[in-house]
UniProtKB/TrEMBL annotation, chain A:
UniProt xrefs under SUPFAM superfamilies: Winged helix' DNA-binding domain
Residue span of region Disordered: 1-35
Record Pfam families: CSN1_C, PCI, RPN7
Keyword entries, A-Z: Cytoplasm, Nucleus, Signalosome
One Gene Ontology CC term in the entry: COP9 signalosome
Entry protein name: COP9 signalosome complex subunit 1 isoform X2
Originating organism: Phoenix dactylifera
Presence of the UniProt keyword Coiled coil in the record: no
Sequence similarity: Belongs to the CSN1 family.
Domain PCI: 235-405
Database matches in PROSITE patterns: PCI (PS50250)
Compartment(s) of residence: Cytoplasm; Nucleus
Automatic annotation (TrEMBL), chain B:
A GO BP annotation: ubiquitin-dependent protein catabolic process
Protein name from the UniProt record: COP9 signalosome complex subunit 3
Family to which the UniProt record says this protein belongs: Belongs to the CSN3 family.
Localization: Cytoplasm; Nucleus
Length: 446, 387
C-alpha cells in the first residue's frame, strides 16, 4: 500500500466530461494513493484486498479498463489469486478470459480444476455427515460450527447462495454475542458479494443490537458495511455519515471487503455531494479520525479543501483525474456520474450564493467551461429552484432575484381564496346530490 | 282537442289565469304540432312565459317544464334556436325557487345557447351558484353544456370548474355525459394548467376505475404534452386525429397545441431577464425568430406575460408582474372576496348544524356509540338518542 509508484501519466479510457485547465501535476508527490490520478497500478491496488473481493475487483477491472496491458495484468493477478483458493468455476472463467494471451503458465489447467472439484465433493460429504451427526447429538455449539463450516466451504467454492443459507442457519444455534457477531459478519460478507444490500443493512442492525459492547474493529467493520449498503441504495448522505463515523481502528482488518482508501474516497465524495457547508466542516474537515483515512488518498483530501475554500476549478480538476479509476471500482462505478453531477451543481450554487450579480464570463473561467454550457446549466438549476436568480442573456450576467414577499403573499392569498371558494361550492353541490340520492333510496324503501 | 284547446286559450288571460292557461297549453303541446301552426305556437308560448305569474306556475312545475320542453323541441326542429334563448331564460327565472336552484330547464337553455352561439346570453344563468338540484341528470347535462359555453367564451377556469363537477359527481354507473366531459376536462386542463390533475379522493369509484378506459387517446395526448416537446405532441395528435374529430374536439386540441408554446415561453420568463429571439425560438422549438416574435407579441397583448421586445437587438426583456396590490380596485376585489367567502362559510356551518339535527344522522351515530360516559354527553336532547 505504501509504495512509490511511478504510474503512467494521463487518464485512460473515458474522455473528461469538461475541459481540464492543466495536466495532472500530482504524481510527483510520490503519493501513496493508488486510487489517485495516475493510471492505476493494478498490483498495488490488488494488494489492498484479500479473499474473494480481490478476485472480483481484479476481474471487474479487467472487464472495464479497455486497455489491454492493464487487462492482462489484472487477469494475471486474478489467476494467481484464484489458484490459491478453491473456486474452480471462477478459475475456469479467468482462464477463458485470458484466452492464452499470457503464455502457457496461464492456461486452463484442467487437471487442477478437476482435482479441486473432487476434493470439494469429498469435503462436502464429510461436512454434511458430520453435521447430521451433530444434529442427532443435539449439541448446539457443534451444530452451529457445523453450519458455519459448511458456509465457509461453500463460500470458498463460490457457491454464495448456499453459503448464505448455511450462515443464516447458524442463527438459531448462536448462544453468545460473539457467535452472533460472527454470524452477522459472515452473512454481511456474502450478501455484499451477492449484491443483496437489504440483508447487509438487516444484519448490521442485528449485530449492533447485541447486548455486549463490541470491540472497535468490529464497530468499524459494521459501519463500513452499513455505509456500503446506503451507497448502493443511493442514500449518499447516510452513507457519508456512516463512512465518516468509521474509526481508524479499521486499518486493514476488513480487507476482505473494503480498504481504508475506499472509506476515505466513498465517504469524502458522498459527503461532498450531499452535506451542506456546516456539516462538511464539522464532520469532514474537522474530523480527526477521518483525517487518518484522508491521508491515504491525498487527492480526495485536497479536493474537499478546495471545495470548501471555493477553489472550484482545482476541485473539479481533481475530480476529473480521479474519475477513470473510480469507474473501475465495483461499488462506486454506477454512482460516479450522479455524485459528480451533484458536486458540480453544489459548486455552482455555492459560487453564486454570495453575489447579487455575477458575470458569466468570470464564472465560466472559474469553472473552466464555456459560457453557453454554463448558461444551460444555470437555467436547469434555476428551473429546479436551486438558485434564485435570473439570467440576462444579452449581457451575460446572472442577477440574484429575491422574490417580493409582499406581492407573493397577496398572490397566494387570493389564490387560496379562489380555491377555497371553488372547493366549497363543489362540495355543497355534491352534498346536495348525495342527499338527493339518499332521499331517493329512502323513498324507494318506503 | 288541439283546436278546442287553442280556442279556449284565446279566452284566458295568461298573466291572471296562468294556471289554467298552462293546463290548456300543455294539453295543446302534448299533441303533434303541425308545421303551419308552429310559428303561431311559438309566439303563444313566448307570450305566456313572459307574462305568466311565477307563483301560479310553481304549483305545477311538471306541466310548465313539459310545455317548455316541447317549445324547445319545436325551436330546434325549425332551426331557430336563437328565438328560444330569451324565453327560456325568463322561464328559468320564473320556475326557480331561488337562484341556487337547478331546474330541468337549465340544460335545455344552455343547449339552445350553444346551438345559436349566443354564449353571452347564458352568462347570467351560468354565474349563479347551484346548490339545490332536482334531478342529478340535469346537473350532468347542465355542467357539461356550461363547460362548453365557458370554453366558447374562453373562460377556461370556469369551464374547468363545471367539467370538474361532472367528473367528480357521485355516480353509481358510468354515463356518456361524464365520459365526454372527461375528454374535454383533459383538454381544458392542459390548456389552462399544463397538466391533468389526478382524481381527487371524493371522485366516485365508478369514475376512477372506468373513465380512463374510454378516453385513451386523450390520456396519451396529456402524457405527450407533459414532456414539453412540440414534435411529439404533433405526432400524437396526428395519430388520433379522426377520434378527436369524431368527438368534435378538434378545435380544442388545436388550442392545446398552441398552448404548449405559451407554456414553454412562460417557463423562460422564470429563468431569464433578457433573451434573444433566436434563443427563444430554439428553446421553444419554433422555426424562426420571426415566429418567436409573433408568439411573444401575442402573449404580451393577451396579458399572459410582461415583456418588451427590442427589435434592434432582437432581444426580449422580461419584466415582473407590475401588480403591486396597492390600488383601490385591488382592495375592493379583496374585500368583496372576503365577504363572499364569509357568506359561503356561514352557509357551510348552517348546513353542518342542519345535518347534526337530522334524525337519520343521529340514529346512525347513536348506534355506533359504545358507552355513555358523563363526558360523552353533550347538549343533544335525549329523544334523539332513542334508537
Amino acid at each position: 500500500m505504501d509504495g512509490d509508484e511511478e504510474g503512467v501519466v494521463g487518464p485512460m479510457g473515458d474522455e473528461a466530461m469538461f475541459p481540464n485547465g492543466g495536466g495532472d501535476g500530482q504524481q510527483q508527490r510520490g503519493s501513496k494513493a493508488v486510487m489517485g490520478g495516475e493510471q492505476m497500478d493494478v498490483e498495488a491496488y490488488a494488494s489492498l484486498y484479500t479473499g474473494r473481493t480481490k478476485v472480483t475487483r481484479l476481474l471487474f477491472i479487467a472487464d472495464r479498463c479497455g486497455n489491454e496491458g492493464m487487462q492482462l495484468e489484472a487477469l494475471r493477478l486474478a489467476y494467481d489469486e484464484i489458484k490459491k483458493g478453491e473456486d474452480s468455476q471462477l478459475y475456469r472463467e479467468a482462464a477463458s478470459k485470458i484466452a492464452g494471451r499470457l503464455g502457457p503458465q496461464y492456461t486452463l489447467d484442467q487437471a487442477w480444476a478437476d482435482s479441486i472439484d473432487r476434493r470439494a465433493e469429498q469435503r462436502k460429504d464429510k461436512l454434511e455427515n458430520e453435521l447430521s451427526g451433530y444434529k442427532t447429538n443435539l449439541i448446539k455449539e457443534s451444530i452451529r460450527m457445523g453450519y458455519n463450516d459448511l458456509g465457509d466451504f461453500y463460500y470458498a467454492h463460490g457457491q454464495l447462495g448456499d453459503a448464505f443459507k448455511n450462515y443464516v442457519r447458524t442463527r438459531d444455534y448462536c448462544t453468545t454475542s460473539k457467535h452472533i457477531i460472527q454470524m452477522c459478519l459472515n452473512v454481511i460478507l456474502v450478501s455484499i458479494e451477492l449484491g443483496q444490500f437489504m440483508h447487509v443493512s438487516n444484519y448490521v442492525s442485528k449485530a449492533e443490537q447485541t447486548p455486549d459492547t463490541l470491540d472497535p474493529v468490529t464497530v468499524a467493520k459494521l459501519r463500513c458495511a452499513a455505509g456500503l449498503a446506503y451507497l448502493e441504495a443511493k442514500k449518499y448522505k447516510l452513507a457519508a455519515r456512516k463512512f465518516l463515523e468509521t474509526g481508524p481502528e479499521l486499518g486493514n482488518n476488513y480487507a476482505e471487503v473494503i480498504a481504508p482508501q475506499d472509506v476515505a474516497t466513498y465517504g469524502g465524495l458522498c459527503a461532498l455531494s450531499s452535506f451542506d457547508r456546516t456539516e462538511l466542516k464539522n464532520k469532514v474537515i474537522d474530523n480527526i479520525n477521518f483525517r487518518n483515512f484522508l491521508e491515504l488518498v491525498p487527492e480526495v483530501r485536497e479536493l474537499i479543501h478546495d471545495f470548501y475554500a471555493s477553489r472550484y476549478a482545482s476541485c473539479l480538476e481533481y475530480l476529473e483525474n480521479l474519475k477513470p479509476n473510480l469507474l473501475l471500482d465495483i461499488h462506486l462505478h454506477d454512482h460516479v456520474e450522479t455524485l459528480y453531477t451533484q458536486i458540480r451543481h453544489k459548486a455552482i450554487i455555492q459560487y453564486t450564493h454570495p453575489f447579487i450579480s455575477v458575470d458569466l464570463h468570470t464564472m465560466a473561467d472559474a469553472f473552466k467551461t464555456g459560457v453557453a454550457g454554463l448558461e444551460k446549466e444555470l437555467e436547469a438549476l434555476i428551473t429546479d429552484n436551486q438558485i434564485q436568480a435570473r439570467i440576462d442573456s444579452h449581457n451575460k450576467i446572472l442577477y440574484a432575484r429575491h422574490a417580493d414577499q409582499r406581492n407573493a403573499t397577496f398572490q397566494r392569498v387570493l389564490q387560496t381564496g379562489v380555491e377555497f371558494e371553488r372547493d366549497a361550492r363543489a362540495m355543497l353541490l355534491r352534498a346536495n346530490l348525495i342527499k338527493h340520492e339518499y332521499n331517493q333510496r329512502a323513498a324507494r324503501k318506503i | 282537442s288541439q283546436a278546442l284547446a287553442s280556442c279556449l286559450l284565446e279566452q284566458l288571460d295568461p298573466s291572471k289565469h296562468s294556471l289554467g292557461y298552462l293546463y290548456l297549453l300543455e294539453a295543446y303541446s302534448s299533441g303533434p304540432i303541425l308545421r303551419e301552426q308552429a310559428s303561431g305556437y311559438l309566439l303563444t308560448v313566448v307570450e305566456f312565459i313572459n307574462s305568466c305569474s311565477a307563483e301560479q306556475i310553481r304549483l305545477t312545475p311538471d306541466k310548465f317544464v313539459s310545455v317548455c320542453k316541447s317549445f324547445k323541441d319545436q325551436v330546434m326542429q325549425l332551426q331557430v334556436a336563437i328565438q328560444g334563448v330569451a324565453p327560456l331564460r325568463t322561464a328559468i327565472r320564473k320556475l326557480q325557487t331561488s337562484s341556487e336552484h337547478l331546474t330541468t330547464l337549465h340544460p335545455d337553455f344552455l343547449l339552445l345557447c350553444l346551438l345559436s352561439k349566443c354564449y353571452k346570453a347564458a352568462l347570467s344563468i351560468l354565474d349563479d351558484d347551484i346548490f339545490e338540484v332536482d334531478q342529478p341528470r340535469d346537473l350532468f347535462l347542465y355542467c357539461y353544456y356550461g363547460g362548453m359555453i365557458n370554453i366558447g367564451l374562453k373562460r377556461f377556469h370556469k369551464a374547468l370548474e363545471c367539467l370538474h363537477n361532472v367528473v367528480t359527481a357521485p355516480m353509481t354507473a358510468l354515463n356518456a355525459i361524464a365520459v365526454e366531459a372527461f375528454k374535454k376536462y383533459i383538454l381544458v386542463s392542459l390548456i389552462h394548467n399544463g397538466q391533468v390533475p389526478s382524481f381527487p379522493k371524493y371522485t366516485s369509484a365508478t369514475a376512477q376505475r372506468n373513465l380512463k378506459n374510454y378516453t385513451q387517446p386523450y390520456i396519451d395526448l396529456a402524457n405527450c404534452y407533459v414532456t414539453g416537446k412540440f414534435s411529439e405532441l404533433e405526432t400524437s395528435i396526428q395519430t388520433n386525429i379522426e377520434k378527436f374529430q369524431a368527438d368534435n374536439n378538434l378545435g380544442l386540441v388545436k388550442q392545446v397545441l398552441s398552448s404548449l408554446y405559451k407554456r414553454n415561453i412562460q417557463r423562460l420568463t422564470q429563468t431569464y431577464l433578457t433573451l434573444s429571439l433566436q434563443d427563444i425560438a430554439g428553446a421553444v422549438q419554433l422555426k424562426t425568430p420571426r415566429e418567436a416574435e409573433m408568439h411573444v407579441l401575442r402573449m404580451i397583448q393577451d396579458g399572459e406575460i410582461f415583456a418588451t421586445i427590442n427589435q434592434k437587438d432582437g432581444m426580449v426583456s422580461f419584466h415582473e408582474d407590475p401588480e403591486q396590490y396597492k390600488t383601490c380596485e385591488m382592495i375592493e376585489h379583496i374585500d368583496s372576496s372576503i365577504q363572499r367567502l364569509m357568506g359561503l362559510s356561514k352557509k357551510l356551518s348552517s348546513i353542518d348544524e342542519h345535518i347534526s339535527c337530522d334524525p337519520a344522522y343521529l340514529t346512525k351515530i347513536s348506534r355506533e356509540r359504545q358507552r355513555f360516559d358523563f363526558d360523552d354527553f353533550d347538549s343533544v336532547p335525549h329523544k334523539f338518542l332513542q334508537t
